[in-house]
Amino acid sequence: MTTPFQVADGVFLVSAGHTNWILLEEDGALTLVDSGYPAHREAVEDSVASIGRRPEDIRAMLITHAHVDHIGSASALAQQYSFPVFASPEEVPHARREYLQQAGPLQVAANAWRPGVLPWSLHIVRVGALKPVSVPEVQAFPSGGGALDVPGHPIPVPLPGHTSGHTGYLLPGAGAVVSGDALVTAHATSRVDGPQFLLPMFHHDEPQTHETVEALADLPADILLPGHGPAYRGSLRTAVDTARERVGRASA
Ligand SMILES: [Zn+2]
């Protein structure tokens, strides 16, 4: 269920049912990007073991954005294995839960008529979606741009909209980019596969999300590693255009 899928040298996409995390490996050391729901703590550890490493090899964690399906296990793992957790400066207060930019039970209930929303909501409650999570340990990564000094040397790509500090990570050596929830390839509440946006209720600022993904289109990468759904290989320009066309069709 959580078998890591190697997409490039030292880059693994791990899918745990309804959410993904990513492992970057460099010289035996790891960076964990996102950490699933609260119930996924052991699954994160298992995914590390299945690429032949130990959780103690995690040198750092990066957060794409501070929703419960991406930071659920972060604090517990960081405390147990003593690694630092980084997010964009804008996302740090969100990860500390000084405020919350996430669809609540009322918004989900209002969307329960949509295909897939009800079974999805029942599933996420089982994996801890209603648990209050925060990451008190989180710190801002340097905001000067350029590669971060963690295994895999990812380069932050600001993709605000889904949350105010939502960030993707370019992996230049692998020709891949972590897109978080700015652009996904599948979701339990979607009937289509391939590059797409999440439902409007999931975005803090939906128009901004649709705009900022432009930053992905011209990156030197042809692999997209989303927060939900399988890896996409191909032109990122096409991926962005496809997602935007789908929005156009849905609202037409
Ligand atoms: Zn998500």
UniProtKB/TrEMBL annotation:
Domain Metallo-beta-lactamase: 18-228
Domain of life: Bacteria
Gene3D superfamilies to which the protein is assigned, alphabetical: Ribonuclease Z/Hydroxyacylglutathione hydrolase-like
Record CDD domains: yflN-like_MBL-fold (cd07721)
InterPro entries documented for this protein: Metallo-B-lactamas, NDM-1-like, RibonucZ/Hydroxyglut_hydro
PANTHER family, per the entry: METALLO-BETA-LACTAMASE DOMAIN-CONTAINING, METALLO-BETA-LACTAMASE SUPERFAMILY PROTEIN
Name recorded for this polypeptide: Glyoxylase, beta-lactamase superfamily II
Biological classification of the source: Bacteria, Bacillati, Actinomycetota, Actinomycetes, Mycobacteriales
